[in-house]
Amino acid sequence: MSISAIVQDVYEEMRPHFGEGKVADYIPALARVPLDKFGIAVVTTDGETAFAGDALEPFSIQSVSKVFTLTLALGRVGSGLWKRVGREPSGDPFNSIVQLEHEHGIPRNPFINAGAIVTADVLLAGHQPRETLGEILQFMRYISQDDTVYMDEDVARSEQATGFRNAALANYMRGYGNITNPVEKTLGVYFHQCSIAMSCLQLAWAGQFLANGGKLPGNGPRIVSAERARRINALMLTCGHYDASGDFAFRVGLPGKSGVGGGIMAVAPGKASIAVWSPGLNEIGNSAAGTRALELFAKKTGWSVFG
Ligand code: GLN
């Protein structure tokens, strides 16, 4: 069966589940997104694309952006990053502060909010926020091969006005010296990276370098080494869904990263990158129908990193 036939099948079988879960209402701009949206897109490592539903409509990628800022931060400081952020699953919610005191302001991993705020701080060092945001956006446009990718100022402002927990995390880590720039500036970078708007198709393209050994599709330009792509995938598998990372590995069997906008980007190494979007979240804060769609897709393709 062709990939596009599988994508169509998944879309049809998912219909009864459109609208499952609840939108993230703690960010006012996200609370307004219609619950019944659903999109799925796949890009294979030889550049074939397949998509269905609302796959061309931009949505707020939120924490999926953490994969790309991690990639940039590793490019900037290499393994020095691991002095400031760990590589272990947290087993706690994405916005939790509890481990930070025991672990002296070093977040468990780069995909929980605290870890992504440190990563944003690394990217900001020596720059003005505007320059760092320009670098992030340029990278997103390059890897998705699409210059229309943008940051949604309304979403960024909405989070800036209500992001008290993120402000608490950043200030707390600043107290341990693990945030080096003024907290408002680091948070400004973080909120803007989360506000990036992309469609499933753009996001599937953006994930290609992780599926294709560090390169854009086919023998395209190299973005990172094959080893770095493998390691980023390992972190997505173990930490990409917060305290549901184990469940996602069990159900889907592929590295993936979720965001509270309802998007998930998943990677089948050597085969394809996949993006799904359905704004309704489960109680952990991951897309309910999105997870189900990926489970179905993995089952139909037989793709799994576990053999
Ligand atoms: N911007 C969101 C926040 O900081 C990102 C969280 C997420 O997508 N899980 O709360």
Task: Tell me what you see in this structure.
By secondary structure, this protein is of the alpha+beta class. It folds into 2 domains: 166 residues, Beta-lactamase (3-Layer(aba) Sandwich); 130 residues, 3-Layer(aba) Sandwich (Beta-lactamase), CATH 3.40.710.10. Helix content is 46%, strand content 11%. The chain has 14 helices and 8 strands. The strands form 2 sheets. The protein has a 5-stranded antiparallel β-sheet with strand order 2-1-8-7-6, sandwiched between helices. The mean pLDDT is 97.
Radius of gyration based on Cα positions: 18 Å
How many domain modules? 2
CATH architecture of the largest domain: 3-Layer(aba) Sandwich
Bound molecules: glutamine
Helix and strand string, N-terminal first? Answer: HHEEEHHHHEHHHEHHHHEEEH
Q: Mean of residue pLDDT?
A: 97
Low-confidence segments: none
How would you briefly describe this protein structure?
With 307 residues, this protein is of the alpha+beta class. Helices cover 46% and strands 11% of the residues. A hairpin with a 4-residue loop joins strand 6 (256-258) and strand 7.
